[in-house]
Every structure is written in structure tokens, then in C-alpha cells.
């Protein structure tokens, strides 16, 4: 049985803004075990990054208020002091971001930055940290790491920089990795290599991973479970096979239909979910997706549906999902091939 590493329980993240308080994450719950990759998906503005940043409490403490629980190995991170949180970051839980340039310091060599991160979290000599930095660069597939360790971020390609970020994030062997769109800025070949790398490292360290992405291709590639978010809420959660084969929520079905599909030698016209995610100042009263949903009824407009467990491990937040599944459009992508 794999260890339960992270458990979000009814997490809410509120921001104080000039126009009042907004709630970017609204009652999110999910669990990550060791050795598991949980994908968090949704369009831009659904609250994926705020969820990720809330886990590590990276948001400005003055204008942010959290509710609920963020349990890491059973302890609520929201009760931790700032210095205790600093110990957790990088040591137990690491994060990688979409743009490595924003996290790497341009004036230090990549080796120096990895060494600093190791020395910050582990008791070892500078020499040992340096050897470990080279070993991590080698592990992440950087050729001639003994030479590259002296280079500066601008001397490396985008893919190499992302590998350096991963090397840095994993240098202290965290139990949990949070990856926020780690491959979005990369070309498809490099993207595939980085995803393979994250998969391999997850297996060798038995690490739990939260993969934030808007790309369902990435989900199919690396995730075991998927949490679909819409306007700050979880609207569906399932294991990856279930989600791709029998999506229940109209939003998830829309996202899956918008994956390009090749039928014979013809590329099918892409499905588009009409409208866009509203701002946090215009949250609908009932189901948040209702204004964009082709199946919405008066009940959807007036009452918010709860997230219910439709079958073991498959949760959905929709008043009409049973009728919608009954339309026979259940099977989207064959994940078994
Ligand atoms: N500091 C903040 N103050 C107020 N609102 C914020 C703040 N940070 C994020 N938001 C709002 O929270 C909502 C969720 O943002 P978030 O960045 O989590 O979305 P996302 O799903 O990760 O999208 P993307 O893929 O574009 O990053 C958005 O409406 C955003 O404008």
C-alpha cells in the first residue's frame, strides 16, 4: 500500500483585492499517494496554479487567506510557521514551473544554484554538494555535466534549462513534486523527453507528483488520477482510464472533444467549448459551468450541485450527468493502445 503523502481537504484560497475578496480555490479536496501522479486540469483561470501555490504557501501571506486543510503526511501545513514551511519547501515538497528562467538566477552558474539549494537543505560539505549537483545533472540527461555545471542559464536551451530546474527540484529527493505546466513552453520532442524523465524519476524515487496542466495529452502520458477544475472547484475526479473512457461532466467531455483527432487521413475539426471562464467577480449562483453548458436546466442555473461519488473513485459535480452519459457519447479516447 502506497503512503498517503498529500491530502487537500476542502481547501479554499481567498484573495483580498481592490474590488473585495475573491475565492480562487473553492473547496478543493484530493489525495496524492507516493508513486502516483495526479493531474490537475482545466482551462486558464480555473485555479490550478493557485491550488499548487497554496500547497506550498507561496502566495503573498498579507493578501491571501486559506481555509480547510493541506495535510502533508497527516500534518496540516496551514498550521506550520514560516520557518517550518521553508524547511518543507525543497526538502519534502519541491516545485517546478513553466518558465525555468523565472526561477533560475541569470548571474550564477547552474552548478552554483544547485549546490546552494543542496546546502540550504542538507548537511554536507560544499565538495559533496558539488558532486551531487553533477550527479543530478547527469540523471536528468544533461550531456557532459562536468562541463555544463559551470554554464549560466542563458547558455542553455529551453529544454536543458527545464532539466536543470528538475535537477535542482530533485536534488534533495523530495517526497512530493509539484509540476506547474513544466512542458508548456517546450517543443513537442523536448516535451516528450521531459515527461519521460519525470516518469522515470517518479519510479526511481517513488515520489508523488501533482501535474498541473491544461494539456490532456500530458495527462494521458504521465498521470494515474485526474482532477478536473472549473472556476475554483473540482468538477470531476477519476483515474485516468475512467476519465478518458467515461467522462461524466459536460466540461470534461468538452475538453476531451477538443483534443485533435486523426480519422483515417483526415484531421477532424476541433470542438470548441463556447464562451470563457468567468472572472472571480462574476461567479454564477448555481452550477459554475451552467452559462456555457448545452445541457443546463433551470435547476443548474439556480442550485450548485455537490461533488458526488458516482462509482468507486469517480466523482462528478453535475445535476444531469446520468442523462448526459445516456446520450451514448461516453467513449472518447482509447487509452489501452
Ligand atoms: N493574487 C491574486 N489576486 C487575485 N486574484 C488572483 C490572484 N492570483 C490568481 N488570481 C485569480 O485566480 C484565478 C485562478 O488563477 P490561476 O492562475 O490559478 O488559474 P490557472 O487555472 O492556473 O490558469 P493558467 O493556466 O492561466 O495559469 C484567476 O481568476 C486569477 O485571476
Give an account of the 3D structure.
It comes from Neobacillus kokaensis. Pfam families: ABC_tran, oligo_HPY. Belongs to the ABC transporter superfamily. Keywords: ATP-binding, Cell membrane, Membrane, Nucleotide-binding, Transport. With 337 residues, this protein is of the alpha/beta class. The chain has one domain: P-loop containing nucleotide triphosphate hydrolases (Rossmann fold). The chain has 13 helices and 14 strands. The protein has helices at 48-55, 82-88, 100-103, 110-121, 126-139, 145-148, 158-170, 188-205, 216-222, 240-245, 250-257, 298-302, 321-325, and strands spanning 4-17, 20-33, 37-41, 64-72, 75-76, 93-96, 176-180, 208-213, 225-230, 233-239, 262-263, 266-267, 308-311, 314-316. The chain has an 8-stranded mixed β-sheet with strand order 6-7-8-3-9-10-14-13, sandwiched between helices. Strands 2-1-4-5 form a 4-stranded antiparallel β-sheet, with helices on one face. It has a two-stranded antiparallel sheet with strand order 11-12. Helix 5 (126-139) packs across helix 7 and helix 7 packs parallel to helix 8 (188-205). Adenosine-5'-triphosphate binds at residues 15, 17, 22, 24, 42, 44-50, 214, 279-280.
Amino acid at each position: 500500500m502506497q503512503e498517503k503523502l498529500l491530502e487537500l481537504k476542502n481547501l479554499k484560497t481567498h484573495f483580498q483585492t481592490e474590488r473585495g475578496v475573491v475565492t480562487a480555490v473553492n473547496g478543493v479536496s484530493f489525495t496524492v499517494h507516493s508513486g502516483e501522479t495526479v493531474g490537475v486540469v482545466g482551462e486558464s483561470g480555473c485555479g490550478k496554479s493557485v491550488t499548487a501555490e497554496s500547497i506550498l504557501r507561496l502566495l503573498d501571506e498579507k493578501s491571501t487567506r486559506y481555509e480547510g486543510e493541506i495535510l502533508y503526511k497527516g500534518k496540516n501545513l496551514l498550521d506550520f510557521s514560516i520557518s517550518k514551511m521553508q524547511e518543507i519547501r525543497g526538502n519534502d515538497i519541491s516545485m517546478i514551473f513553466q518558465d525555468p528562467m523565472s526561477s533560475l538566477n541569470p548571474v550564477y552558474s547552474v552548478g552554483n544554484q544547485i549546490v546552494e539549494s543542496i546546502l540550504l537543505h542538507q548537511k554536507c560539505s560544499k565538495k559533496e554538494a558539488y558532486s551531487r549537483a553533477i550527479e543530478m545533472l547527469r540523471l536528468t540527461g544533461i550531456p557532459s555535466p562536468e562541463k555544463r555545471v559551470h554554464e549560466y542559464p542563458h547558455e542553455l536551451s529551453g529544454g536543458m534549462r527545464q532539466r536543470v530546474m528538475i535537477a535542482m527540484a530533485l536534488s534533495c529527493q523530495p517526497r512530493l513534486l509539484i509540476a506547474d505546466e513544466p512542458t508548456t513552453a517546450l517543443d513537442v520532442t523536448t516535451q516528450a523527453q521531459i515527461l519521460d524523465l519525470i516518469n522515470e524519476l517518479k519510479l526511481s524515487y517513488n515520489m508523488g507528483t501533482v501535474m498541473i496542466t491544461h494539456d490532456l495529452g500530458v495527462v494521458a502520458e504521465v498521470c494515474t488520477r485526474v482532477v478536473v477544475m472549473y472556476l475554483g472547484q473540482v468538477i470531476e475526479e477519476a483515474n485516468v482510464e475512467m476519465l478518458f473512457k467515461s467522462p461524466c461532466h459536460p466540461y470534461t467531455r468538452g475538453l476531451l472533444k477538443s483534443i485533435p483527432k486523426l480519422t483515417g487521413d483526415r484531421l477532424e475539426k476541433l470542438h470548441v467549448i463556447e464562451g470563457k471562464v468567468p472572472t472571480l467577480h462574476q461567479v454564477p449562483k448555481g452550477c459554475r459551468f451552467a452559462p456555457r453548458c448545452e445541457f443546463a436546466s433551470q435547476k443548474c442555473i439556480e442550485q450548485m450541485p455537490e461533488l458526488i461519488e458516482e462509482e468507486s473513485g469517480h466523482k462528478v459535480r453535475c445535476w444531469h450527468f446520468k442523462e448526459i452519459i445516456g446520450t451514448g457519447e461516453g467513449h472518447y479516447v482509447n487509452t489501452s493502445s
